[in-house]
TrEMBL record, chain A:
The protein's name: ABC transporter permease
Bilayer disposition of the protein: Multi-pass membrane protein
InterPro entries attached to this UniProt entry: ABC_transp_permease
Species this chain originates from: Phytoactinopolyspora halophila
Assigned keywords, A-Z: Cell membrane, Membrane, Transmembrane, Transmembrane helix
Stretches for region Disordered: 339-396
From TrEMBL, chain B:
GO molecular function annotation: ATP binding; ATP hydrolysis activity
Coiled-coil stretches noted in the UniProt entry, renumbered to this chain: none
Subcellular location(s) of the protein: Cell membrane
Membrane topology label: Peripheral membrane protein
Record-given protein name: Sugar ABC transporter ATP-binding protein
Keyword list, A-Z: ATP-binding, Cell membrane, Membrane, Nucleotide-binding, Repeat, Translocase, Transport
Lineage: Bacteria, Bacillati, Actinomycetota, Actinomycetes, Jiangellales
Species whose genome carries this gene: Phytoactinopolyspora halophila
Residue span(s) of domain ABC transporter: 19-255, 264-506
Length: 396, 510
C-alpha cells in the first residue's frame, strides 16, 4: 500500500466503523442480549434459565429448526426460497418410519430413503426454477401443496415406527448438548465451509447477487440453483429424520408447524439478505438460537401461546426493520455538517439546533471544527487524480 | 495465475491489425440496424466509435463481444475468421468488454469479482490467499495500489467500480478491450484515473475500442475514430486530422453552427423566483443561492461536492435543516417532493431509469404521472397539453401508448422533461440533463432550456460536463465540499471552474 490519501481514507473509515458490526456479529450480539434479558425475566420468577432442563430445551428446539434453516440459507442466498420444506419434513418423517418399520437393521435403508426422497424433491424444485424459469415462490408453494395432498390422502395419522436405537438420535445427550444439536452444528459447520471454500459456494453468492453477472462470468447458474435446492431439501430431510426419531413414528401433521416460515424468519434474522447474495450459515444459526431462546423463555414464563406468536412476529419484524435501517445508513452519505438534527444517531455530541432556528434569520456558521469531522478531511479531492473510497463505512 | 499482456515488450506488435470486422450486417426482428459496417482495430491503439444513439455502436460492439451474432460479414481475429456465440468464448479468445451496466457483485470483494467463475483452487477448495495475491499483483501492475483486493466493491466509488470492471476484463489476458461509455457515470476527476489506465493499456499493445458521447474524451484519448450513422459506416479517420466540428458534422450529417444554441431574443432576467438563505443540512452548509426568472444558473463541482444534494434538498427529498427557503418572496418549507411540486419546482433527476420513469409504462402514463399525483384538480387542462409538449420536443415514439423502456435514452429523457413541463413549473432543476443521450437529443434539451428561460422559468442546471456548463449558463455557482466555493459569470473558462471546484490552481499539488 502506498501512502496516498486514499489509503488514509480507508483507514479512517475502518476506525470510524468500530461499532458498525457486520450482520453476523450483530446477530450474536442480539442473541446474547436476548439471553440476558430472558435470564433476568426467568430469574424474577425464581427460576434459572441455565439449568439443565432449560438449556436442553433450548438446544433441542434449535436442532430441528436449525437443520431446516441451514438448508433455507442456501436457497435464499441464491435469491430463491423454499416453501416446501415443512412438507418435506413431514413426508420424510413418514418415509423414515415406514421404511425402518421398527427394524434396527433397516436404519441405514431408512436414512438412505429419506435422503433419496428429499434430494429428489429438491432436484425437482431446482430444475423447475432453473430450467422452466418458474418463480421459486410458486414452484415450492406448489411442491408443498402436492406433498400435502399426498400426505392428507395417504396418511391420516402416524405411520410406521422407528427402532429404539434410532430414537437415540432424538434423545441422547452429550452432557447438556443433545446429540441432534451436535449433528445440526456439524452440518452447519459443513455448510459454512462449503460456502466459504467451495467454488459452488462462491457461485451461490454470485447467482444471488446478480444472476446475469454470474452467467456472464461463465458460472452455470442453473446448476448452482439446483444444488442449492437439493441441499435445502436434504437438510429438511435430516429434520424429518429427527422428527421420526423423536416421535418414534412418522407424522404427517407436523407440516402444521409451518417450519418453512420459521426457517425463513431464522435466515432473515441471521442477516442473510432476502434478495440473495449476502449472508451465511453462521448468522442463520444465530437466528435459530434467538428463536429457540425466545420459545424457551416464553414457555417458562407461561406466555399465552397466541400472544407468544404475536411477540415472535413483532421481534422478527423489528429485527428486519433494524437491518433495513442499517442498509439505509450504509447508503447514506457520511455526515459532513453535523447540526444535531440531521437524522443521524451519531450526533449527540453536537449542539442541538432546533429545525425552526432558521426563522430568526441567518444561522451563524458552524464552528470551524465541525467541518473537520472524522473522515472528512481527506474528502478534498486533488486535481483530477483522486478516487475517493465510497462514503459507506461498512465494518466488514 | 493470470498474467497481463506483459511489459512494454508487447508493444512491439503495436500497429498490427488484430481485429478486422468486414461487411457486418445485423437485423433485429426484421429491422436492419447495421449495414455492411467495417471496423479494424490495431494493437496499441485507442479506437473511438462514435455516432448518435441508434447509430449501431452498441450493436457492433456486442457482435465483437459475442453477445449478438452478425447476420452477414466476417470477423477476423489475428487473420483467422471467428464467430463468437457467447461472451465467454470471446473472452477466452482475448476479447473482453466492459459494458455500460456494471457487471459486478457489490457484496463481494474486488478479488472475488475479478476471479468470479474461475476462482483458483487448491485441493478442490477455493484458495482465497492466492486469489487475493493474484489480484494484488494485477492491481500493482496497473499502478492501482490504492485499491485493495479485499475491499468490498459496494464501498467503492463509481469510478473505483469501473476500474474493477476493467481489471476484471484485463485479467482474462485481454488483448482487445471494448468499453461502452465508460465515463458516463464518472465525474471529471474520476475520468482522469480511467485515462491513465487506458494509457497504460495502450502502451502494452492492447487494442481499445472506446464508445463515448463525450467528444472531449475522443480527442483526448483516441488515435483513430470510426463514425457510424444510421447503422452505416461514415468513415474511419485519424483523430489528429479532424476537428470536433467536423466530427459532429459527420455524426449527425448536418452542420452544427454552434453546439450550444444562443439565447432567445428578448430573454430577460427577471425577479428572483427562488432564494436560499444560509441553508444547510448534513451534506451542505451556508448555501446562499438565488434563481431568477429567465436565468440559467449552472451548479458545478466535483462529484460528491453537494450538487445533487442541493437538488434533493430543494425538492424535499432530503431537507435543509438550517436556513430558509423563499419562493416568489414567500417563505416556504419543502418537506416532500409533493410540496415541492406544489410550490412550482420541477426536478429532472440524474438517474432517469431509476428515478425518472416507470419503464414498463406508456409514454402517456409517464408524462401525466406528476399531474395526476399532485395536481388532480388541474390535471384535466394540463393533461390536454401533454401531446403538444411531446411533439414540441420531437419525441420519436410509435405512439403515446408505447412503453418507455423501448425508447432510446434521448427519447426517454424527453418523456421525463414532458412530465415536468406539463406541471408548468416556475423553477426547473435539471440534474445531468444530457447524460447518456445522443448529440441530437442534447441539442434539443439545450434549446428547450433556452425556450423555458425565455418564458421566465428559473433554471438550475447541474452538470459534470464543463463545456455544457460554460456553453449554457448565465451564471456558474461552484460547489466544493458542501459549500459554495465561488460564483462565475457567463463566459468563464474551464480552468477557473476547475480551480474553484478543487480549491487550488490546476496542476498544483496540495
Amino acid at each position: 500500500m502506498s501512502q496516498t490519501t486514499e489509503t488514509v481514507d480507508v483507514a479512517q473509515q475502518r476506525s470510524r466503523s468500530r461499532w458498525n458490526l457486520g450482520p453476523t456479529e450483530l446477530v450474536f450480539v442480539a442473541l446474547v442480549g436476548i439471553v440476558i434479558i430472558g435470564a433476568v425475566l426467568v430469574g424474577l420468577r425464581g427460576q434459572n434459565l441455565f439449568n439443565t432442563a432449560n438449556t436442553v430445551d433450548m438446544f433441542t428446539r434449535s436442532s430441528l429448526l436449525g437443520f431446516i434453516a441451514i438448508g433455507q440459507t442456501f436457497a435464499i442466498l441464491c435469491r430463491s426460497l423454499d416453501l416446501s420444506v415443512g412438507y418435506v419434513v413431514a413426508l420424510t418423517s413418514i418415509v423414515a418410519a415406514t421404511t425402518m418399520e421398527g427394524d434396527t437393521g433397516r436404519i441405514g435403508l431408512g436414512i438412505g430413503a429419506v435422503l433419496l426422497v428429499s434430494g429428489a424433491i429438491g432436484l425437482a424444485n431446482g430444475l423447475i426454477i432453473a430450467v422452466l424459469r418458474v418463480n421459486p415462490f410458486i414452484t415450492t408453494l406448489g411442491m408443498g401443496l402436492i406433498i400435502k395432498g399426498y400426505l392428507d390422502t395417504q396418511y391420516q395419522g402416524p405411520a410406521g415406527s422407528v427402532p429404539t436405537q434410532f430414537q437415540q438420535f432424538g434423545f441422547t445427550r452429550l452432557g447438556f448438548l443433545p446429540l441432534s444439536t451436535a449433528v445440526m452444528l456439524a452440518v452447519a459447520l459443513a455448510g459454512f465451509l462449503f460456502l466459504r471454500k467451495s467454488r459452488t459456494g462462491y457461485h451461490m453468492f454470485a447467482v444471488g447477487g446478480n444472476a446475469e453477472v454470474a452467467r456472464m462470468s461463465g458460472i452455470r447458474t442453473g446448476r448452482v440453483m439446483v444444488t442449492a435446492h437439493v441441499l435445502c431439501s436434504l437438510c429438511a430431510g435430516l429434520a424429518g429424520l429427527l422428527i421420526a426419531a423423536r416421535f418414534g413414528t412418522g407424522s404427517a401433521l407436523v407440516y402444521d408447524n409451518l417450519y418453512e416460515l420459521d426457517s425463513i424468519a431464522a435466515v432473515v434474522l441471521g442477516g442473510t439478505l432476502l434478495l440473495g447474495g449476502r449472508g451465511g450459515i453462521a448468522g442463520t444459526i444465530g437466528g435459530v438460537l434467538i428463536l429457540a431462546v425466545l420459545d424457551t423463555v416464553f414457555n417458562i414464563l407461561q406466555v399465552d401461546p397466541f400472544f407468544k406468536d404475536v411477540l415472535r412476529g413483532v421481534i422478527i419484524i423489528a429485527a428486519v426493520a433494524i437491518y433495513a435501517r442499517r442498509q439505509l445508513d450504509r447508503k447514506a452519505r457520511r455526515i459532513r455538517f453535523d447540526d444535531g438534527n440531521g437524522g443521524s444517531a451519531t450526533s449527540d455530541a453536537a449542539p442541538k439546533v432546533p429545525p425552526s432556528a432558521g426563522s430568526s434569520g441567518r444561522q451563524p456558521p458552524p464552528p470551524a471544527g465541525v467541518r473537520g469531522a472524522p473522515g472528512d478531511a481527506h474528502e478534498t479531492s486533488q486535481t483530477g487524480t483522486t478516487i475517493r473510497q465510497g462514503p459507506k463505512g461498512e465494518g466488514r | 495465475m493470470t498474467t497481463l499482456p506483459s511489459g512494454p515488450s508487447a508493444g512491439a506488435d503495436t500497429g498490427t491489425t488484430v481485429v478486422r470486422m468486414a461487411g457486418i450486417d445485423k437485423s433485429f426482428l426484421g429491422v436492419q440496424v447495421l449495414f455492411g459496417v467495417d471496423l479494424d482495430l490495431r494493437a496499441g491503439e485507442v479506437h473511438a466509435l462514435v455516432g448518435e444513439n441508434g447509430a449501431g455502436k452498441s450493436t457492433l460492439m456486442k457482435i465483437l463481444a459475442g453477445v449478438h451474432q452478425a447476420d452477414g460479414g466476417t470477423v477476423e481475429l489475428d487473420g483467422h475468421a471467428v464467430s463468437f456465440e457467447h461472451p465467454l468464448q470471446a473472452q477466452h479468445a482475448g476479447v473482453s468488454t466492459v459494458f455500460q451496466e456494471f457487471n459486478l457483485l457489490p457484496e463481494r470483494t474486488v478479488a472475488e469479482n475479478v476471479f468470479l467463475g474461475r476462482e483458483p483452487r487448491r485441493r478442490g477448495l477455493v484458495d482465497a490467499a492466492q486469489m487475493n495475491a493474484a489480484t494484488a499483483a494485477l492491481l500493482e501492475d496497473l499502478g492501482l495500489t490504492w485499491l485493495s483486493p479485499q475491499t468490498r466493491v459496494r464501498s467503492l466509488s463509481v469510478a473505483g467500480q469501473q476500474i474493477v470492471e476493467i481489471v476484471k476484463a484485463l485479467s482474462h489476458d485481454a488483448r482487445i478491450i471494448s468499453m461502452d461509455e465508460p465515463t458516463a457515470a464518472l465525474a471529471d476527476e474520476e475520468v482522469e484515473v480511467l485515462y491513465r489506465l487506458i494509457g497504460t493499456l495502450r502502451e502494452r499493445g492492447v487494442a481499445v475500442l472506446y464508445v463515448s458521447h463525450r467528444l472531449k474524451e475522443i480527442f483526448d484519448l483516441s488515435d483513430r475514430v470510426t463514425i457510424l450513422k444510421d447503422g452505416a459506416l461514415v468513415d474511419t479517420v485519424d483523430t489528429a486530422r479532424i476537428t470536433s466540428d467536423e466530427l459532429v458534422k459527420l455524426m449527425v450529417g448536418r452542420p452544427i453552427s454552434s453546439f450550444f444554441p444562443d439565447k432567445i431574443e428578448g430573454t430577460a432576467i427577471g425577479e428572483t423566483r427562488l432564494r436560499l438563505d444560509g441553508c444547510g443540512n448534513a451534506q451542505l452548509d451556508g448555501i446562499d443561492l438565488e434563481l431568477r426568472a429567465g436565468e440559467i444558473t449552472a451548479l458545478a463541482g466535483l462529484q460528491g461536492s453537494g450538487r445533487t444534494e442541493i437538488a434533493h434538498a430543494l425538492f424535499g427529498v432530503d431537507r435543509f435543516t438550517r436556513g430558509s427557503m423563499w419562493i416568489d418572496g414567500r417563505r416556504v418549507r419543502v418537506r416532500s417532493p409533493r410540496q415541492a411540486v406544489r410550490a412550482g419546482i420541477a426536478l429532472v433527476t440524474e438517474d432517469r431509469k431509476a428515478e425518472g420513469l416507470a419503464l414498463n409504462q406508456s409514454v402517456m402514463a409517464n408524462a401525466r404521472l406528476v399531474l395526476d399525483a399532485v395536481q388532480p384538480g388541474q390535471a384535466g387542462r394540463r393533461v390536454q397539453n401533454i401531446p403538444g409538449i411531446l411533439s414540441s420536443l420531437d419525441l420519436v415514439a410509435r405512439d403515446v401508448d408505447q412503453e418507455v423502456r423501448f425508447l432510446s435514452g434521448g427519447n426517454q429523457q424527453k418523456v421525463v422533461l414532458a412530465k415536468w413541463l406539463a406541471t408548468e413549473p416556475s423553477v426547473m432543476v435539471l440534474d445531468e440533463p444530457t447524460r447518456g443521450i445522443d448529440v441530437g437529443a442534447k441539442q434539443r434539451v439545450y434549446s428547450l432550456m433556452r425556450e423555458l428561460s425565455a418564458r421566465g422559468v428559473a433554471i438550475l442546471m447541474i452538470s459534470s460536463e464543463l463545456p455544457e456548463v460554460i456553453g449554457m449558463a448565465d451564471r456558474i455557482v461552484v460547489l466544493r465540499d458542501g459549500r459554495i466555493a465561488g460564483e462565475l459569470s457567463a463566459g468563464a473558462d474551464e480552468e477557473s471552474v476547475m480551480s474553484l471546484a478543487t480549491g487550488h490552481a490546476m496542476g498544483g499539488e496540495q
